[in-house]
User: Fold Beta-glucuronidase from Mustela putorius furo.
Amino acid sequence: MHPAAWAALGPLLWACGLALRGGMLYPRESPSRERKELHGLWSFRADFSENRQRGFEQRWYRSPLRESGPTLDMPVPSSFNDVGQDRQLRSFVGWVWYEREVTLPQRWTQDLGTRVVLRIGSAHYYAIVWVNGVHVVEHEGGHLPFEADISKLVQSGPLSSCRITIAINNTLTPHTLPPGTILHRTDTSKYPKGYFVQNTNFDFFNYAGLHRPVLLYTTPTTYIDDITVTTSVDQGTGLVDYQIFVQGSEHFQLEVRLLDQEGKVVAQGTGCRGQLQVPNAHLWWPYLMHEHPAYLYSLEVRVTTQTAAGPVSDFYTLPVGIRTVEVTERQFLINGKPFYFHGVNKHEDADIRGRGFDWALLVKDFNLLRWLGANAFRTSHYPYAEEVLQLCDRYGIVVIDESPGVGIVLAQSYGNRSLQHHLEVMGELVRRDKNHPAVVMWSVANEPASFLPPAGYYFKTLIAHTKALDPSRPVTFVTNSNYEADLGAPYVDVICVNSYYSWYHDYGHLEVIPLQLATQFENWYRTYQKPIIQSEYGAGAIPGFHQDPPVMFSEEYQKALLQQYHMVLDEKRKNYVVGELIWNFADFMTDQAPQRVMGNKKGIFTRQRQPKAAAFLLRERYWQLANDTRRPPAAGGAQCLESGLFHV
Ligand code: BDP
Assistant:
């Protein structure tokens, strides 16, 4: 890589070693834990200096940002790209600086028995954090949370406030996830001196900034650091295996209780690991598969230590869904019953806020998913906010949880350095999402160049590592029907394949889809004998464009293309096809390119979440599929399933 590209990255330190330190429990309030959200307006400055290093040279973290130059107001959470009127900021590559002064409750700064933690839900892509000018943590990767224990800093002086500075660099290199390259334009007859652009091999805008909640939370100094729960079922008895990690002391008592939705204790135990047994357990069922989907128990954990001032306890409550997942040669089973994925691929993407987390958008999206009769989605092409997965748990929307391994196409991105980082990201992803019943499968990558020779070793290692991290879930990666050799497919449990017949080739010739799609399925199944998910298919439609007979980009063409796919899917789902996920739930922003009209228009909803004609077609289909593939009523119950619970 050109040395100046490294200059754009600045003092980027590469994480090494695969052992993750500590847990990453979602910060929940409890009798022993408080939260302080830092959303709202932060001070902001992009470092437009030629080498992007001025902020480090002038140590902008040492004093309030306003003292080192002009600042902008920047909302958090949000991407910084689309909130302003500045074209250069929209496409900025390099370091941006965020800062926020926080007033802390007195107890947090004076009670030495309180631990104060700063948690950043997501900072895309590389982040360095200072508190009161002191470096506290760095993190690589834009889609997973990271934390710093800042107790000592905020408890060391008379101050009741602290200043948080976060420098974030959005540069992508062949070794980041997703990868990218910096292209230096050196022809001075065409470009100014030092001109460079970020190049990527994925089809979405590289939004950047503080995308998810930033918050402070407290725990006692002896605290519940991590919980791992796995579940199984033995003849109607739910088995909940738990393992709890405590930090801060070696002498403590640990009690756990499992409560049902009425608040009744159904099982209890003591000690760091054990098994809770729940006779006649309510299982966690996907949406539309059961009359009471998404049943959640609460695992209450309490750890108590003796201190000079008496006993001190830390409490944490984890939602627990009891369910099983298995894969056979032809089926995907949830609670021992065949499950058919009828759902969508999404993006975290919306007007103005870019990839920024937004509750209103989240609730709207879940209302649309339920209206559509979707029972699943894939977190294409990176891990989504934890709040999204919490709603999936509560509504029974099944998730294929994908890493940011998208656009891995350069040979350089298959070296050891990239692999080490990818292994580490899978570690962070599993650590964060392992307890969500909605998550039924890990996806390590989307459309990697899996035909390149090093891809075999890369995916073998990556998939084995992911299975070792979590033996309870199957693993996949998403391939493309155009790839003739797939060196990763032998290692996955489920084949996920994307295809764009009559869109990226055979333009307008919808009639070739049945043959080409059937051939795709037959070839993949013959080669691997594994269940297959049509993990992407779709067509672009510009809302309001109508043409009949259909032509590309009209709403009619999008509908007609889907119908051709559905005919084949209906045939093959009798056999080994276990799911279909439309590309895409909603229109989304991409880089500018002649084949993109203000972004990718393959959404069945617009970017503003209004339905195109295809949404109604898919709605009919999904509700019908729900009826066709639902669980047969259990003996002695579920009568309402028979009486047509599911209707559009
Ligand atoms: C697929 C990619 C997806 C793209 C889609 C498209 O997985 O990210 O957005 O193509 O071109 O191959 O619309």
The CA atoms of residues 623 and 647 lie 6 Å apart. The mean pLDDT is 94. The pocket of beta-D-glucopyranuronic acid is lined by residues 203, 381, 446-447, 480, 498, 536, 583, 600, 602 (CB under 6 Å). Residues 416-433 form the longest helix (18 residues).
